[in-house]
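Changelog-adjacent note: as of this version, every example in the card shows the full chain rather than a window. The one below runs 85 residues end to end.
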Amino acid sequence: MENMRDNQELWKNIAPIIKEKLGMTIIAYETWIAPLYIVSCEGGIMNLHSPFSDTENQYVEKRYMPMIQYVVSEYMGESYEVLIE
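Full-length structure tokens:
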């Protein structure tokens, strides 16, 4: 799934599920999840692009990554590793 439009559509479907599962406020969602986007998604690995600094990426990984990986794996129907670049 390397098509940019497909990746955008995929994240558009997955991101709101992450918001719901985490019980995020709209501000937290728009700050930390909505700006991410899929760069590539294949072979059980999803790479997300982040506009954040390294410190902010560490925060996202610590606070949200377990649920992001869970939702992505559930949505995709197989185990996925999610990485932030």
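Structural remarks: The chain has one domain: 4-84.
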